[in-house]
Amino acid sequence: MTDPTWKLGAAALSAAYRAGRINPVTVAADLTARIAALNPGLNAYVALADDLADQAAASRVRWAAGQPLSPLDGVPVAVKDNLHVAGLPTTWGSRVLDGPAMADELPVARLRAAGALLVGKTNTPEFAVEGYTSNARFGTTRNPWDPALTPGGSSGGSVAAVAAGLACIAIGTDGGGSTRRPAGHTGLYGLKPSIGRIARGGGLPQILMDFEVIGAFSRELADLTLLYRALAGPNSGDPDSRALPEAPAARQGLRIMSVPLLGTHPCDPQILDAHRALTLRLENLGHHVTEGALPLDLSEIDAFWGHFAQIGLARLAATLPAMQEKASAQYLAMAETGKAVPATALFAALQAVQRLRSECSRLFRDWDVIVMPCAAAQPWPAGESHPEEIAGQPVGPRGHAIYTGWVNAAGHPALAVPAGRDAAGLPIGCQLIGDMGAESQLLDLAATLAAAEKRAWEWPAFALASTEPAKVK
Fold it and tell me: Given CB 3.0 to 4.6 Å as the disulfide criterion, which of 161, 200, 302, 473 pairs with 44?
């Protein structure tokens, strides 16, 4: 059986290049035509690299000479529009920023050094502080599983591109769940690494401080592992990246804590069913699963959470004069609110973050993995910022996002994995949360799950409705 080139993941493309069955120039041409046909219906990309054909030609030469730069050489990668790619605009989903970036941000530079094809920039909400993906400059991004619905945010453009076959893999950011929730909403794997695991440098201000890390997306786990290996590692310009050891190899019979609910917060019953089924599969693999409440006090973090972004926007407004004229009114209002938050309140919140990090460090002496949903709600209408009701209960703007932000504040790694489908056929995701530096453990655990389930990616109907380009023989 043969597949069109756009259906191939990173590992499959690399193998096809090595065997000489296909070359990066053909892949880039097929992908360019596919993006032209499908992107208008999704709005995943907001800018495309005009040198994609040149990147592909250089990769073809390296493969022909038997000298690829890495297994990602010639593999198309999408990049979220809050990360610098030299020659492409970094707009942050806003009218405030314009013009091409002069240099790659460090993670992007690592992808370029690996020979990856940097396809273009993917949509994000303005300043990447929302849980859906829409902005006044580029409009609304839609979910390939149902274009009437959101793919989540703030990395919605990246997940939409990968789930629709408009990129093999993608990167984004995760400051409060912006990798895991969108991955769950589109059936992808999504990795939020530990603070420092993927070094940062040369990028935009991090509004959410060190909570924000680089996120990675793929349809197949092997592809995510390749992407993670290309991105991970220390850099002298990022002190956090120099102090993080790799966690020990995973043991057999892991101690797994299952947390279906957080306090009194509601969760969609179909998500809870998928979570329960996932924990049963983990038990069947020989792991020791205990269900219970998360033994952490999140009250101070939850109470202050909205202020973190407001304070970050206030600082941005103080350093970017164009914000007053060009930013959307709601973000200017957030900045004004942030400017009024007392320094004593911020200091107290930062102390709460340190306490949380200490508590989590102690928690992982007794547990290897925590399993919980990625989101409390399934995708909602694409142009709406959040669902107003979950499981029959009214919720606020972050009611759908309760499961993720605390992991960012703690700094620990988490991996979104496919956990099933709801009655409408939409994907459901759950997250595996590990100790600091335990990314490889989480990837290994997810691999055993995928192997036991004989899991294979299934394409959404939107992706299959396009004209099939040339096939790999």
Answer: 161
* DSSP designation for 426: -
Exactly one of 178, 194, 241, 328 is catalytic; name it: 178
Contacts of 409 by beta carbon, 8 Å cutoff, 6+ apart: 211, 301, 353, 356, 357
283, two tokens: 């038990």
Domain with 150 in it: 3-236+371-472
Distance CA(157)–CA(179), nearest Å, equals 11
For residue 381, list its beta bridge partners.
149
Q: Are 107 and 198 in contact (CB under 8 A)?
A: yes
CA distance 41 to 453: 32
Active site residue 80: yes
Q: CA distances (Å), 26 to each of 21, 72, 327, in order?
A: 11, 16, 40
Q: Looking at 7, 14, 80, 218, which residue is catalytic?
A: 80
pTM beyond 0.85, yes or no = yes
Number of domains in the chain: 1
Among 14, 59, 94, 154, the active-site one is 154
| Residue 472: pLDDT over 80 | no
Cβ contacts of 58 within 8 Å, gap of 6 or more:
none
Alpha-carbon distance of 100 to 54, in angstroms, equals 18
Identify whether 400 is part of a domain.
Answer: yes
Q: Do the beta carbons of residue 316 and residue 205 sit within 8 Å?
A: yes
**Whole-angstrom Cα distance, residue 382 to residue 298?**
30
CATH number at residue 449: 3.90.1300.10
Residue 342 lies in a domain: no
User: HSE of 167 in the Cβ direction (CA atoms, 13 Å)?
Assistant: 34
Task: Note the pLDDT of residue 455.
Answer: 86
In a domain, 410, yes or no: yes
154 is catalytic: yes
* Long-range Cβ contact pairs of 322-325 (< 8 A, separation 24 or more): 322/96, 322/97, 323/96
What values do phi and psi take at 178, rounded to 5?
A: -75, -5
Kindly provide the b/e burial profile for residues 87-107, where b requires at least 16 CB atoms within 10 angstroms of the residue's own CB: ebbbbbbbbbbeeebeebbbb
Please check whether residue 308 lies inside any domain of the structure: no
Angle between helices 439-453 and 221-231 (to 10 degrees): 170
Task: Give 186-227 pLDDT, tens digit per residue.
Answer: 999 999 999 999 999 999 999 999 999 999 999 999 999 999
